[in-house]
Amino acid sequence: MKYNTKSYGFLRSAYQKFRYGLCVRPSNYITSPLRVLPDFFVIGVARSGTTSLFHYLGQHQNIRRASYDELGYFDENFHLGLNWYRSLFPTKFTKQNIQKKHKKFLTFDVTPFYIYNPLVIKRIIEKFPNSKIIANLRNPIDRAYSNFNQGIQDNNDTKTTFEELVVKELDIIKNNKLDLNNMSTLVDNFYELLLARGLYEMQLTPWYNSFPQNKILITSSEELSNNTNNVLKQIFNFLDVPDMKIKDTSRKNKRQYPTMKNETRQSLIEFYKPYNEKLYALVNRKFDWDR
Question: Which one of 43, 65, 162, 273 is separated from 132 by 20 to 30 angstroms, measured CA to CA?
Answer without folding.
Answer: 273
